[in-house]
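Take a protein:
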Amino acid sequence: TLETYTFQQFLNRDDTGIILINQYIEEMVRHALDTHQCSIPAVLEIPSKGHPYDAAKDSILRRANGMFTAEDLC
């Protein structure tokens, strides 16, 4: 799709360090985001006024789930 192609173009740029994307758009490119394993550019989901945020769909939270224990956060 055009969304996936555009997202891939941002992932491949040398001058991009962080990509801010809302969850609604992220759903359109999820398969491309799921294959992105590099730390740069970092892809961060941000809330959208027009669409409710669902923490269960947040790719960053899904990846971080289980990386920390309760003791790590104290």
About this structure: The longest strand covers residues 18-22. The mean pLDDT is 76. The helical segments are 2-11, 23-28, 30-35, 59-64. The domain at 2-65 is CATH 3.40.50.10580 (Rossmann fold).
